[in-house]
Amino acid sequence: MMRLVHYANKPITEVLPVTQTPYRYGSVHIKPNGLWVSVEGEDDWRSWCLSENFGLERLTHIHDVTLNEGANVLHIHGPAGIDAFTQKYGARYDWGMTGVRWQDVADDYDALIIAPYVWSRRLDGAPVGITVGIVLRAASGSRER
Q1: Are residues 3 and 9 in contact, defined by beta-carbon separation less than 8 angstroms?
Q2: Which pLDDT score is estimated for 143?
């Protein structure tokens, strides 16, 4: 079973609902709102932060995250999954980068998990390709360990 964790610089006591910023042509809002979680394992967030010496102070509190039973989760596996996601939800920004219509994704799903890491889509213009999970609408809770 996949273990989802959220890293923070302090304990999290509640998970608040979020809304997505609607896509506007030319918008610079590239990343979605939500509780960002890491799929524990190879190429996870903690490993990347340690290897890059990035945001180490934000790794001090580890919270296990459990999605609501019956949550509608889009789990993307591999390049074909990234390509299908991009085809359905992708949007081009003025400067040529591909973004995502996150409001549309949140209308269709409660959460998005991309694992394992899709190295072949890292820098090829695909809007997503990392080992990541994003709770777009709802989580049953998180607990620090």
Answers
A1: no
A2: 41
